[in-house]
Design a protein that fits this description.
Blueprint: E1 18-23, E2 27-34, E3 44-51, H1 54-66, E4 71-76, H2 82-90, E5 95-99, H3 113-125, H4 137-169, H5 184-194, H6 200-204, H7 215-221, H8 228-262, E6 265-268, E7 284-288, H9 295-299, H10 307-317, H11 327-334, E8 339-343, E9 346-350, H12 357-370, H13 376-388, H14 390-410, H15 423-426, H16 430-443
Parallel strand pairs: 1-4, 4-5
Antiparallel strand pairs: 1-2, 2-3, 6-7, 8-9
Helix pairs in contact: 1-2, 4-8, 4-10, 5-8, 10-12, 11-14, 12-14, 13-14
Length: 454
């Protein structure tokens, strides 16, 4: 067989002057490796401790620049890596973040911070480490806002659950009648209960819209033992919910402002200059999207992806798709595809891994929404769920959505086009299907004669 040539990627090249840092909360174990002073000499590792403070790390960065360090590797430990990565990035050092799982030392060797730092430096100089994806500074800022909005939204949901539990304690079963406890009708009833109203008929009159047809059920559900201590607790919970809602609205406004600055700008991969959007050393000056729509508006056209979901996706993966050469690279990074495990002739699927929880959560919500639509994604879900189950079918739809996102962000002029709910049926080979049905009927002992329909 002809040998297959697999070229090395950029991060796999051998580097002469490297630095590696085994980070901890209060300090970091720094190891530098430099070429020998003489031709017959050996490479030397220098190891020392540096406090994890801004001044000390900045001083170390300047020292590494003076030494001509070509690459710095930082082990991703909790959030302790951020001060090292951000300050090194700010001064222009080529810094990479690596997963601690991928830099474990050889089993059986002693485990110390010094040996870990030396091992990390040796792996760096030989190009044996795969760097993790760290988005540029504007995307990191946007990500902080979107993640906090998600966390506050979840916290608000937990407060509504506490309200429902409080109503159950008061024998109020309004959640059994109303489709959602955070609706305007239920909120008006809660405010009336807190204000001292206990008549279930008057409370039922506060229903709005389609809930007005459920007055009889509401009267029964609102008959309970709601007393003053329930009212005091409900007031506290509702005030917390209102405060969270105001904070979420503030975050949403700020997210829209940030997206207005970066969502309509994409990097030009043909330029090697520093880009204010993607950071120093990345793709060059930004260029306008020719489609006339922002990235959020174009992603919003995908079934299941709403404006909020599009904002989260952009914040997590950024706008520069040159970081992911193909859609498969992005899908693999997001961990929504099985890991291939091959040993000899055996080929099986391994566990995909955890991935980015915020991105996977947003894609999961979009996949669940797209599965209920009369679109290509909805039809694909209905075809897959029959033989693969709900969970795997939803993961497959999430993968399709992420592939679509990659194509839309990689080409700023692209627009989403739905293949249609009849895509699969239009691809069926009619003659083959007729032949298969004839063979099946013949196997059952029938003679088939075909006549075209009138």
């Amino acid at each position: 067989m002809k040998p297959e040539e697999i070229p090395d990627t950029d991060h796999e090249l051998v580097v002469e002057r490297v630095c590696a840092i085994d980070v901890a909360k209060a300090s970091g174990k720094v190891c530098t490796r430099i070429p020998p002073q003489t031709r017959a000499g050996r490479r030397v590792s220098r190891v020392w401790d540096v406090p994890a403070t801004a001044n000390a790390v900045t001083e170390l960065a300047e020292h590494l620049i003076d030494q001509g360090t070509e690459r710095v590797t930082i082990e991703a430990t909790s959030d302790y890596w951020r001060i090292w990565f951000y300050l090194f990035e700010a001064v222009g050092l080529e810094v990479q973040l690596v997963n601690a799982r991928e830099v474990k030392n050889v089993p059986g060797r002693p485990k110390t911070d010094k040996l870990d730092a030396v091992w990390l430096a040796k792996l760096t100089e030989k190009g044996m480490l795969r760097p993790s994806f760290v988005p540029p500074a504007p995307s990191r800022n946007l990500r902080d806002y979107t993640r906090l909005r998600i966390d506050l939204t979840r916290e608000r949901t937990r407060h509504w659950q506490r309200v429902e539990k409080l109503l159950e304690d008061a024998l109020i079963k309004v959640s059994s009648v109303a489709s959602s406890i955070d609706s305007r009708s239920v909120r008006d009833m809660l405010e009336a209960l807190i204000g001292g109203e206990r008549d279930p008929r008057r409370l039922a009159e506060l229903a709005r819209g389609r809930m007005r047809t459920k007055k009889a059920a509401l009267v029964e559900a609102l008959t309970g033992r709601f007393d003053d201590h329930h009212a005091e607790l409900a007031r506290i919970l509702l005030d917390q919910i209102d405060a969270l809602s105001a904070q979420i609205a503030t975050l949403t406004t700020r997210i829209e402002q940030l997206l207005a600055m970066i969502a309509t700008m994409v990097p030009d991969p043909n330029s090697a200059k520093d880009n204010p959007v993607t950071g120093p050393g990345n793709a060059g000056p930004p260029r306008r999207i020719a489609a006339g729509l922002t990235a959020v508006e174009r992603l919003d056209e995908i079934p299941g992806v709403g404006p909020l979901g599009a904002q989260v996706i952009i914040a997590e993966i950024g706008l520069d798709m040159t970081r992911f050469p193909t859609p498969a690279h992005l899908v693999s990074w997001a961990k929504i595809c099985p890991r291939t495990v091959q040993s000899g002739p055996k080929l099986r699927s391994g566990t995909p891994g955890k991935g980015n929880p915020y991105l996977k959560g947003s894609l999961g919500e979009a996949a669940a929404a797209a599965a209920r639509t009369d679109t290509f994604l909805g039809e694909r879900y209905r075809r897959l769920v029959k033989r693969r189950g709900k969970l795997k079918a939803l993961v497959a739809i999430a993968r399709s959505i992420l592939v679509t996102v990659w194509h839309l962000l990689a080409d700023p002029t692209a627009r989403f086009h739905d293949l249609g709910v009849d895509y699969y049926t239009s691809k069926i080979n009619t003659q083959r299907r007729i032949r298969d049905h004839i063979h099946q009927l013949a196997a059952l002992g029938y003679t088939v004669t075909l006549e075209p329909a009138a």
